[in-house]
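Recap from last week: sequence in, structure out.
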Amino acid sequence: MSSRSVPPAAVAHQRRSPHQRRSPHQRRSPHRWGVALVAAASVLPLSAVAAAPAAASAAAAAVASPAVALSAPAAFPATVAGSAGERGNPYLASQIVTPPRPVPGTDRRVHLAYEILLQNTSDQPVRVDRVEVRSPARPRPVAVYDGAALERLLFNAETGGFTGTLGPGAVGVLILDVTLRHGGRVPASLVHRLSLTVPPDTVRPVTVTVAPTRVDRREPVRLRPPLRGSDLAVFGCCGPPFAHRLALLELNGRLVLAQRYAIDFVQLDNGLNSFAGDPSRNENYFVFGDDVLAVAPGRVVATRDGVPENVPPNLPPSPGLDDLTGNFVIQDIGGGNFALYAHLQTGSVRVRPGDRLQRGVALGRVGNTGNSSEPHLHFQVTDGAGLPSGLDANGVPYVFDRFRFDSRVAGLDAVPPTPVRVPAPPPHRRAQQYPLTGDIVGFR
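Predicted structure tokens:
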């Protein structure tokens, strides 16, 4: 693994403001954050690992955004633990990974982010043409997906890409972000009505109902932000482009997705650049060396330090599952919830297991360790410690108590992507919301 460690004192001296004027001789970023983010997240080299877990692990190590999603290897099961015969459905078995739980986003919508595993149990290719998300208590669908929009939501583990078709025996994951009106009633349960095309009859669609699930209507976890500063760009949940939400694992006989609501934070200038000067020097990235802060009071349950810094913009070669987080801190923040602060700077971890932290205490610095191609903070909350590396657990939603929302990167979900920085909708002061992918926020 290539590495480069920068002493904290040197960081404080060398780190630049994102708005500091560059000389004409300083080289600009070879890519804009938005462009590289979408390019990486829209072509994920994942494959079914039931047959070849080692190959999938190597492939997943290459998954990166400019902030490089931690992205553990996707581990789709060989079979889906659903019934193929329910309600006259011989075509698809289905399984909900985790029941959806509402979280309010900065778009003034309430998001239900969840995943449905699907397996074609027939001997013919099955094309999913339409998905209706329905509540038994409502006459109309809660959400409808079809056409090109649907094809961007169904990831085929057999082909390693997004598609509307599953071959015989193939397993895929349907990645949903159902949004509801803010202040409206959240349904208690959901079912999914799928319209399929199944040869030889390609004229008349087949309709099946799959994946009934309850909705976990508990409130999201309320936190203080893990950083201070302005112009912090968010790469997280909930809609396309995806990276974190494809990091599905089958561990100890169960499916987990620790990174469902994970956020990668990078700091940008007005040109959507995350550094100034030589891009191979970690200290030239605006966020490198910033203090990482405890988001809530609670006990430290695990830490790691001593993993060397990567040389940007390169990923380390083939990291193992337990190496993806680099230097990290895992904190028990109460209520069965655990916070992971990952990719911390070498030698910067200031806490030890057993330490009881107060909200806002500095526990380390932003670094570039583990499965990371440039300095950033990877932050997530899960329903368990997920030891040894924070990944053997399921992600749960959270909100930050207050922050500024001044602008966002629009066009990340376009095909092709057309990233541009645009003003955020008012009000600029936000409270008890989850920042969405593309948001540019400020924390005090």
